[in-house]
Write a structure and sequence with these properties.
Layout (H helix, E strand, L loop, with lengths): L2 E7 L3 E8 L5 E8 L5 E2 L2 H10 L10 E5 L5 E3 L9 E2 L7 H10 L3 H8 L8 H11 L1 H6 L2 E3 L1 H9 L7 E2 L1 H4 L5 E2 L4 E2 L1 H8 L7 E2 L5 E4 L5 E3 L2 E2 H9 L5 E6 L3 E5 L13 E4 L5 E7 L3 H11 L3 H8 L10 E3 L16 E3 L7 H27 L5 E5 L6 H11 L3 E3 L5 H15 L11 E3 L5 H12 L1
Parallel strand pairs: 1-5, 5-15, 9-12, 16-22
Antiparallel strand pairs: 1-2, 2-3, 4-7, 6-8, 10-11, 13-14, 16-17, 17-19, 18-19, 20-21, 23-24
């Protein structure tokens, strides 16, 4: 049996899966935590990799590393970190992102060049922040890597130059996504001088070898790795319900949305991965359970006792502002409350608002690509809720495929490793998927849309 190793170096932890290369069966799984915070010494990721993946390396014929997108790992001439890495969720560079958009000629011009409208998550905005606020550190930067690049080079044979893939590169702000090439001039403009960037590795090929000769695939960002892990194909739409809500799809053509609603990333193969992201997702249910004084199971039970439309109760769940639509100063807005409103109505309205918000995100990615969904898949911790399962197909108006729970970023990295090993992308099947169906409730979305647009 040939094994490959897939690694997810995420914000919270390193997760390593040893996988049977023939069919994708997970043979062994290990993990190690990362430090908390929005800026982290990247050497902590290497220690976590050694703890989680190190014991499995000797059994792997190939390896690949997926990782959190956007993070800035700035290195000096000796290859040492100049400062702690700024992660995707560090928003101090919001003004710098706006400055870079203006320098590129505005939002649509920015999207035309890099595939997306710059936001604070993007690496380029973080480089500009260092240039403007830490001049001594900026002057010492000679090379900038993404988190997965930094971990990949750690496992490579000594002397290996850094490498990356198009999927993760497309979230930097200095990569021409539609053309598939670096824009070193944009990286230099962000930090204030020329810097070294990783080699780009073609999909399905090795970027380097471990000391023993086993190939290391190019790796990729977490969203692209998850798409590989689930075997998404053009026309598939994936909804992820976590801290944030994400709707993404595989597209054969690039997307350049000047409104900023869609980020036009590349995928880890030869296509593209446009996505829409909401700030408010699982927190909507967390807050509703807290306010009603119940746990999540009871919240779902209450919700399923109320009728569709929650007897006229509707709300916008923009508790912490919102990214899609772009309303950073918004708050949660409830309407339709009357003396007849029940706890059950309030519970159901929370689920309906969450799913309507995600349905809007699905509409955006579908509209951006012009292709009708082939399948809608849904993942994330909230999918354990009986109410989410019951109401999702009703509000989305179509069946929803529920894959089994799993570490899909690490599994996608393992699939990428097998691709680099054999030269052929393996066709692993998702086991035990469940299809959710329900009668559509279009009136719920209509009420939500009326409030959203008011």
């Amino acid at each position: 049996m040939t094994h490959v190793l897939g690694v997810d170096s995420s914000t919270q932890s390193t997760k390593a899966l040893l996988v049977d290369a023939s069919d994708g069966t997970v043979v062994e799984q290990r993990s190690a935590p990362h430090p908390a915070g929005t800026e982290v010494d990247p050497r902590a990721w290497l220690a976590a990799f050694d703890e989680a993946a190190g014991p499995l390396l000797g059994r792997a014929a190939a390896i690949s590393v997926g990782g959190q997108q956007h993070g800035m790992v700035a290195l000096d001439a000796a290859g040492e970190p100049v400062r702690d890495a700024l992660l995707w969720n560090d928003t101090r560079s919001a003004q710098e992102a706006r400055d870079l958009i203006e320098e590129l000629g505005g939002p649509q011009a920015c999207a035309d060049v890099i595939g997306s409208v710059m936001v604070a998550s993007f690496t380029a905005s973080k480089l500009r922040w260092v240039r403007d606020h830490e001049q001594d550190n900026a002057a010492r930067v000679t090379e900038v890597l993404l988190p997965h690049d930094y971990v990949s080079r750690h496992v490579a044979a000594p002397g290996t130059t850094a490498f990356t893939d198009r999927g993760d590169a497309s979230g930097t702000g200095y990569f021409a996504t539609a053309k598939g090439e670096w824009r070193p001039d944009l990286a230099a403009a962000a930090i204030g001088h020329e810097i070294d960037l990783p080699r780009l590795v073609e999909p399905g090929t090795a970027g380097a070898e471990m000391a023993g000769g086993a190939p290391i695939a190019g790796g990729t960002g977490d969203n692209a790795a998850a798409a590989l892990g689930m075997g998404l194909e053009p026309g598939d739409v994936l909804i992820s319900i976590g801290t944030s809500g994400v709707a993404s799809t595989i597209s054969a053509v690039p997307v350049a949305d000047g409104s900023g609603a869609i980020t036009g990333f590349a995928d880890a193969a030869f296509g593209y991965l446009p996505m829409a992201t909401t700030i408010n997702a699982a927190q909507i249910l967390d807050l509703q359970a807290k306010w009603l004084g119940v746990d999540h199971d009871e919240l779902a039970r209450l919700a399923l006792q109320a009728p569709a439309g929650s007897r006229g109760v509707t709300f916008l769940p923009y508790y912490g502002g919102e990214r899609t639509p772009n309303r950073p100063d918004a708050t949660g807005t409830w309407v339709g409350l009357t003396p007849r409103t029940t706890r059950e109505d309030l519970a159901r309205a929370a689920f309906e608002a969450l799913l309507c918000s995600l349905a809007d995100a699905v509409d955006l990615v579908v509209g951006a690509t012009g292709q009708e969904p082939r399948r809608i898949l849904m993942v994330g911790g909230a999918t354990k809720s009986a109410a989410v399962r019951a109401l999702a197909p009703a509000i989305l108006g179509r069946p929803v495929v529920l894959p089994p729970s799993g570490e899909y970023v690490a599994l996608g990295a393992a699939r990428q490793a097998a691709w680099a090993l054999t030269g052929s992308l393996p066709q692993w099947q998702l086991p035990d998927t469940e299809t959710l169906e329900a009668d559509p409730t279009p009136g719920v979305r209509e009420a939500y849309a009326a409030l959203r647009d008011a």
